[in-house]
Here is the input.
Amino acid sequence: MESWLTPLYDAAGMRAADSWAIDEQGVPSLELMEAAGSALAEGARDRAAPGPIRVVCGKGNNGGDGLVAARRLLEWGFEVEALLLWPSDELSPDAAASLRRFEGPVREVTADQIASVLNGAGAVIDAIFGTGFEGAPRDPAAAAIKAINAEDTPVIATDVSSGVNASSAEVEGEAVAADLTVTFHAPKIGHWVAPGKWFAGELRVAEIGIPPSAPSQPAAGLIGDAALSLLPRRGRRSTKFTSGQVLVVGGSRGLTGAVCMSAQAAIRAGAGYATVAVPAELEPIFESKLTEVMSLACPGPGKMLGPEAAERILEAAERARAVVLGPGLGRAEESFELARAIVSRLEAPLVLDADGLNALAGHLGPLQARSTPAVVTPHAGELARLIESDSDHVAAHRVACAQGAATATGAVVVLKGDDTLVVEADGEERLAVNGLSASALATAGTGDVLSGMIAALIARGLEPFEAACAAVHAHSRAGLIAAARVGAAESVIAGDVIEAIPEALG
Here is the structure.
């Protein structure tokens, strides 16, 4: 795991860390459970409203964590009741040991009883399933999850909300909508990737006694401010040439703004200079809109680019350190033909966005044929078209779809969203998740800004995975800064985000 990423684990990684601590370091498993349950109890104490705290327990070790929490809360003077969804003789050995130590009320409840039993609780602790859960919950767990969600009371999840797959973040059925999740040792993929992240609430990571030197490998990394330390800085001998040129290819009637925003973002993100390759009939518009950016008039059928522009664009790309293809390109078949014709021939690193992606839907050959790096930056709908799926499927299986697209194309995939994913599958497989939420970015044009930023950081010398991660984080920071400047996230426009890039990169 890169030092500038915060480790995120999957179920296998956590099992390996637990086993290493218990089997090789001699840490008693009940000692780990005691620490986990105590941290869980502290979370419940902080969130509980007046009324009894009810702990809904599964039969595995998550149920044992819940029983430890119940004992601690009872010791602190809370009214507590432990609810067992399965008979006590089905508990795991450690959970059974924790049950024997709990001296408060315990009730075995059926699927039909759980809703009435939870009524009036001051807080509910979800201790049904742990990080190893897969699939869709079945009764009595499904009924319990539904009943927990129906209660207007604070809900504290143990390790991961029951119903969420900690490894993939997928939710196939009912899942607990927690107000607080107390997770153990390290955060999991399911806490940070949608749809699982929508069920986590506030996330609190508790150390439970697993030594920090545990050899298990994280499955992903969370992108934070440390990614910005990767950026090369200009020195006294720097020139516009050493800072790198970005070429942005696109534009069509009604879609000139996308090219402008991508190019302006590139120079704000530190590219030495930028050029836009645009339809000849529209070049006067770009000349008037762009002061610091050069323009290249390209032949085409009217106010769009077509195959006849290919050689002119390829010649211009020879001087570029990165190329952005797609902003404002439009969906005319002639423009799609151009994109397919040049994708495999562009020798500079390529950032493919917007209609550049749509041009390759069902035509991945040019992308697969590239000998130099490419980054694709789809939202869910664009990725669905690219891999010939549908957007609902992508939204439900974001990690799997992004990884599949990275494998199929050989490109670094930047799947945009509140949890933007950066995936590389060519050679070393890497998965990074944006850790900074910026709702201000939910507006037209911010994707064009991101593509320009990624290209600029590649032009400045970062390899594509690093550039994508750093740009994604800086892009979110810029969204937050822009929202603070204008006063409301809903009022931010893409131009505000561009103006915030210098501060975001600081």
